[in-house]
Amino acid sequence: MKYYFYKDLKLSTFCLGCAQFGQKYGIANKLILKEREIKTIINKSIESDINFFDTAADYGKSEEILGKYLMPFKNKDLAIATKIKYIKSKKLDKNIIKKAVQNSLESSLKKLRRNHLDIVYIHQYQLFFKFPGVFLEVLRGYRKKGLIRYIGISLYESKEIDRALKYNEIDVFQIPYNVLNRSFEESNTIETLKHQQKLIVLRSIFLQGLFFVDPNELSEYFKPIKQALKNFYREIKKYFNSQEEFFLGYALNKNYGPVILGIYSSPQLMNNLKVFNSSSSKSLFEKIEEKIPKIDKIYTDPRSWILN
Questions:
Q1: Is 42 exposed, middle or buried (0-12, 13-18, 19+ CB in 10 A)?
Q2: Which of 22, 50, 214, 302 has the largest count of CB atoms under 10 Å?
Q3: What is the CA radius of gyration of the chain?
Q4: Which residues on adjacent β-strands are paired with residue 154?
Q5: pLDDT score of 15
Q6: Which pLDDT score, from 0 to 100, does residue 20 have?
């Protein structure tokens, strides 16, 4: 397993995404994982030298389940990232936000059974931009006490980066990146983050599972891009053994930072690990790159999807 080193953090390239622990997550996922399978996935992940786990206060019972099954490995060098719970109060002021952030952090520490949180992401970035001082006051305080190691932010669009970079305390940037959504790359935002020595963590590599759904089975919303996807998948099959090998390998080949992957079964975990532990020629990816269809962002941003 390859690792990324950021200051005093050692992070496996494979970051196990835990959104599906205790809730349905992804366009194709219809099942809630049973705890027995989750335990197997976590155990096999650690056996395979994965030490980086991504969860959130809003991912159902994810934090609680993750904390429970990581307990036997508390002496290992593990890194856990979580996100502050969404603040849904109708009336928002500084005191309400401050208390909500504190409650979220205390709850995460308790559920994860940790004495500190390695990375805490600001998930509600729009609210953060309205009340940056309130969020950072609380986060700085927890960091000073050793309860937080690094402050991060989870973003959706490259235009949000400049605003976030105004706050030096933010070290970690979680961003979407996949073959059909390379906006952070095309806008040179990734280069900006690297230049400023920020840690980049990639998510949505498989576009929440859309790449594994037969285009014919996609909802009517995706009708305008179905043929383009079919044509592209045919090109991939000419050079790669599987969709995973291409889509995951493409992101890994960029070497931007750790990659978050959600796992739904232990066999799927082992298949993805094979891609992490192998390498494909850069020129092979460049060949396919020429064939990548231009897709409107309403189809590459899950927030826009209409699935019914």
A1: buried
A2: 50
A3: 19
A4: 174
A5: 98
A6: 87
- For residue 135, the tally of other CB atoms under 10 A from its CB is 26
Q: For residue 28, what pLDDT is reported?
A: 62
Cβ–Cβ under 8 Å, residues 117 and 148 = yes
Q: Which of the residues in the chain have pLDDT under 50?
A: none
Q: Which domains does the chain have, with CATH numbers?
A: 3-215+243-282 (3.20.20.100)
Phi-psi region at 206: left, alpha or beta (left = phi > 0; alpha = psi -120 to 50): alpha
pLDDT score, position 23:
67
DSSP result, the chain: --EEEETTEEEESEEEE-TTSSS--SSS---PPPHHHHHHHHHHHHHTT--EEE--TTSTTHHHHHHHHHGGGTTS--EEEEEPPP---SS--HHHHHHHHHHHHHHHHHHHT-SSEEEEEE--HHHHHHSHHHHHHHHHHHHHTTSEEEEEEE-SSGGGHHHHTT-TTEEEEEEE-BTTB-HHHHTTHHHHHHHTT-EEEEE-TTGGGGGGS-GGGS-GGGGGGHHHHHHHHHHHHHH-S-HHHHHHHHHHHHT-S-EEEE-SSHHHHHHHHHHHT----HHHHHHHHTT-----TTTT-GGG----
For residues 181 and 171, the answer to whether their CB atoms sit within 8 Å is no
3-state secondary structure 48-65: CCCCEEECCCCCCCHHHH
Nearest to 45 by CA among 208, 261, 197: 261
Structure tokens at 93: 């002021």
> What is the structure's pLDDT at 26?
62
Token reading at 197:
């020595």
Identity at 17, one-letter amino acid code: G
- pLDDT for residue 258: 98
Structure tokens at 50: 């994965």
What pTM, to 2 d.p., does this model score?
Answer: 0.95
Beta partners for residue 260, in sequence order: 15
